[in-house]
Amino acid sequence: MIFGCWNIAWQRPNSRRGARMIATLLAHDPELVCIAEGHLDTFGSDWHGIASAPDYGYPIKPGQRKVALWSRMPWEDVDELGAPGMPPGRFVSGQTLTSIGPIRVIGICVPWFAAHVNGGRRDAENWAEHDAFLKGLRAALDGIGEDIPALLVGDLNQRIPRKGAPIASYDLLMTALGGRFDVWTAGSISGLGQQVVCHIAGTSDLECTEVIGLPRDANGTTLSDHDGFIVRSWRSDVRSLRL
What we know:
Layout: E1 2-7, H1 16-26, E2 32-39, E3 48-51, E4 64-71, E5 75-79, E6 91-98, E7 101-109, H2 128-142, E8 150-155, H3 167-177, E9 182-183, E10 198-202, E11 206-214, E12 217-218, E13 221-222, E14 228-235
Parallel strand pairs: 1-2, 7-8
Antiparallel strand pairs: 1-14, 2-4, 3-4, 5-6, 6-7, 8-10, 9-10, 11-14, 12-13
């Protein structure tokens, strides 16, 4: 199974930079894609999309979503709320069918360290919104059943291993993962010059076979303020034909 992820920094799919990032993702023929800071029309009608709620505490712009998940197959059991107390508009999960069977995917966009400090509501301290989301994420993930494999993916706004984030915030992230999710994008990634803040993590019944970095800069053009990635994975008990 092939999965792509990129924070495309609100680029429209028909813009020069947006179209280039989307084409880069699609060149790998993914079955699933997570887009952070994108639009509801990022992909065409041959894709099935689900997205977080539109209100994330900043001015709402039609069609924009903090995080969206796209699949070649329809979604079911969709949740855009997460857990009580989580900062809104940054969570979506659903179940879809892939070449390695049904999978639950949880898409997130964790608030950056200065969320609602100097913008938005202007009522928060550094890392407060970030930490509040991670505390709620733990509860949301605890409510995810273990009957099928699960993936957690999106913009976590932290590097793994820790670099730059307060120890307390990093500990909250590790606690949220709870030992159930193995982070496949930790450390260095081939093709990238720095650690990523967008990540993908899988449950123990999934194994990552390859991670490919998608650089934010291409041929002198800055496409996004985030790097993207492609991962290949399979179930330990069901080998995919698309390894």
